[in-house]
Write a structure and sequence with these properties.
With 182 residues, the chain is an alpha+beta fold. The protein folds into two domains: 106 residues, no CATH class; 52 residues, Winged helix-like DNA-binding domain superfamily/Winged helix DNA-binding domain (Arc Repressor Mutant, subunit A), CATH 1.10.10.10. The protein has eight helices and five strands; from the N terminus they run ααααββααββααβ. Helix 7 crosses helix 8.
Length: 182
């Protein structure tokens, strides 16, 4: 990288850690996301978004994010309350990225999209049944997939898969294994 590229990269890194840098990035992503989803772009300006934001809550979220050395899960994020509507001031809330991500993976719209793309045949081909056991190996339940096990246990499907693959020993003090039909 030349000097100009290095300076530009450092400037972007410094700027995103300011209120205005965060606001500019979030507002731009909202506009792009709405366009990608073929929804109307936000019906408010960047300045109107800033006026809408609860400053005490924002400062708390923003400062926690900075104190964590900008950990992705803690960055302030704008969530749409209704996934079927675009970004409007009455359809958004300020939360952390982690909270927004969890809500997004559990949303009805996301589940409908996954089911419409995969369909029943693909799910049967790609999904592996998962067994949930206690620490004494007593079988507690069998699920058609790690994702379904996660939904029904209000946890992470990837964490369950890590245990099934032997990358972790337990998750939430439970054992998880792929069901083997012998």
């Amino acid at each position: 990288m030349n000097k100009q590229q290095i300076y530009s990269k450092e400037y972007r890194q410094r700027n995103k850690r300011t209120y205005n840098g965060w606001l500019t990035k979030v507002y731009g992503r909202m506009r792009k996301s709405a366009k990608d989803r073929k929804m109307g772009i936000p019906n408010f300006s960047k300045d109107e978004l800033w006026d809408w934001i609860d400053k005490k809550k924002f400062e708390k979220l923003f400062n926690n994010w900075l104190k964590s050395n900008c950990e992705k899960n803690l960055v302030p994020s704008i969530n749409r309350l209704n996934d079927y509507k675009s970004y409007t001031l009455d359809n958004i809330e300020l939360i952390t990225w982690e909270e927004n991500n969890k809500l997004g993976s559990k949303s009805v719209k996301t589940q409908e999209l996954v089911h419409s793309k995969l369909g029943g045949i693909a799910k049967k081909i790609f999904s592996k049944p998962v067994v949930k056991s206690d620490l004494n190996n007593k079988v507690l339940a069998i699920y058609p997939s790690a994702r379904e096990a996660a939904r029904q246990n209000n946890t992470s499907g990837s964490a369950i898969s890590h245990v099934c693959r032997g990358e972790k020993h337990t998750h939430h003090k439970l054992k998880w294994n792929y069901y083997e039909n012998k």
